[in-house]
Amino acid sequence: MDRLVHYHHPCDDTFSLAYCGESPADLDDYRSDADGPTKSLGYPFETPVYLLFEGTHSAKTASDLEYDSDFVEDQIAGQPRPTQIVAFRLIELLEAAVDVREEDEFRLYKEFEPEQIHEALQNVSWGEVLPTVAGELLSNLVLRHSLPNANHRTGIALAQLCIETVDPSFKMPSTHVDDETWKEWIDPYIVESKRIITVRRNNVRFKHLAELDVDLVERKGGIRIRLSDYELDMYPREALRKYAKIHEEHCVDLITELLKRADRSDLITQSGPTKEEFVEYLDTGVDRDFRELF
């Protein structure tokens, strides 16, 4: 039977894995140095495994989301114009995503970080073929996690707007949260994206777990990561680079599949927009109710 442990504490998913050991005493030094509150959990395998989870914040509900124009303008002050425009659109997309779901079900895990949007835009191969541009845009937005939640769904919506920059008549295949089509093809891409992101940030911890004969790590949402499927033996900085590249390729594949499902394979070899063209479209070419994207 597979030996499974949790990445998020099973009773409080605002606490995530910080350290692991073979005995409770192994956790003591890390616990004393932790910046935030901690919880521990033991797994009574034949060779026991003990985990320390650290929480750095309290999750809020969507009712706490108060991003009026003055707040957003204050947050993005000093950022370049492209970052400001993309930030405004991402906030609008986040609010739309919240609006189509129950507020109490939508939790906010972190603060808005517009500087991460700037970094994301800097790492897109603007002007390359459309799947590369839209896929890298999606990947970098997700990796940098600028919003307090819904980074995948807002990222996919922004990738759609990137495609529309090239062809405003583009129609997205159904990806609504209450549509089974979403579950059939988009959801597996999101699940694997979350696996890659989790491994990227935790290769050293996961290597230690593998050495303790753990087979699976389960994160919130029931997403299971089989440790033997991923290369873990590397320095953290190398893992950040390696898995960022893997994540980009994964997102480019998603956009390629999306174009095929939309019966728009002709766009796969089409040049994507420049950053200036994309920003201009977001600024002047988009006039719609973003709730229809979710």
Write up this protein.
With 294 residues, the protein is of the alpha+beta class. The chain folds into two domains: 1-58, no CATH class; 68-181 and 244-293, no CATH class. The protein is 48% helix and 14% strand. It contains nine helices and nine strands. It has helices spanning 28-33, 69-76, 81-99, 114-122, 130-144, 151-166, 180-211, 236-261, 275-285; strands at 4-6, 8-9, 12-21, 38-43, 49-55, 60-61, 107-108, 216-219, 223-226. The strands form three sheets. The protein has a four-stranded antiparallel beta sheet with strand order 2-3-5-4. Strands 1-8-9 form a three-stranded mixed beta sheet, covered by helices on one side. The protein is globular. The mean pLDDT is 89.
